[in-house]
Amino acid sequence: MKIELEKYKTIVFDCDGVVLDSNIVKTEAYFRTAKNLGATDEQAQSLVDYHVRLGGISRYHKFEYYLSEILHQAVTKEAVQALLNEFSRELEVGLMACEVAEGLDVLRQATPQANWMILSGGDQQEIRELFAKRKLAHFFDGGLFGSPDNKDTVLAREKAKGNLRFPALFIGDSKYDHEAAIRAGLDFVFLSDWTEVGDWESYCQLNKIQLVRSLHSLVKNR
Q1: Where are the domains of the chain?
Q2: Contact assessment for residue 71 and residue 43, using Cβ atoms and an 8 Å cutoff
Q3: Topology classification of domain 5-21+100-220
Q4: Tens of pLDDT along the chain (222 residues)?
Q5: Phi then psi dihedrals of residue 162, to 5 deg
Q6: DSSP string for the chain
């Protein structure tokens, strides 16, 4: 089915696995963060498994879960911050080097009527600094948003402000992206090439989700 990009007034993009080939970078960073701070291989892998299962969810939530349910420790502000700091340090090099989606500039030219937003589970300040360094921020005139606010909160806020205009499209690669889009009333397209969702084919079929391999494929299918 052809996706009528020209009808959308806002296009919302997830970051990891959509604009950047960074899912594996973050997955490896979760494992190294846990190990660097004293975890066993089993504990670190449990954090990774939880991260992959909850793709698109904030790292703040994942580290709180890790402390309480995997390490069985108190969830303190200091403990969470120590994990966040180590995770950011592990991520920095990988995010600067990972591949940018082919066709991003062509897609921007093809949708002049739409404002573009990044909506990520990653840290908001980190995303803004990264996109500035990688000269990608100018594509996203609607803003770059991330945690600690979750995607439902950001979509509701930007909708209320008039920044998120309808009809709107969310392009993502996780079940949470799809769920957040539906709750907020956005159309949704699932990108499969870089996803970490193991059962993405059956999930998309079951939920009748429009499926495209990549942003480049989205441009070609216009």
Answers
A1: 5-21+100-220, 24-97
A2: yes
A3: Rossmann fold (3.40.50)
A4: 578 999 999 999 999 999 999 988 989 999 999 999 999 999 999 999 999 888 667 888 999 999 999 999 999 999 999 999 999 888 888 899 999 999 999 999 999 999 999 999 888 998 999 999 999 999 999 999 998 899 999 999 999 999 999 999 999 999 999 999 999 999 999 999 999 898 999 999 999 999 999 999 888 766
A5: 85, 5
A6: ----GGG-SEEEE-SBTTTBS-HHHHHHHHHHHHHHTT--HHHHHHHHHHHHHTTTS-HHHHHHHIIIIIS-----HHHHHHHHHHHHHHHHHHHHHSPBPTTHHHHHHH-TTSEEEEEEEEEHHHHHHHHHHTT-GGG-TTEEEEETS-HHHHHHHHHHHT-S-SSEEEEESSHHHHHHHHHHT-EEEEE-TT---TTHHHHHHHTT-EEES-HHHHHHT-
Token pair in block for residue 30: 């979760």
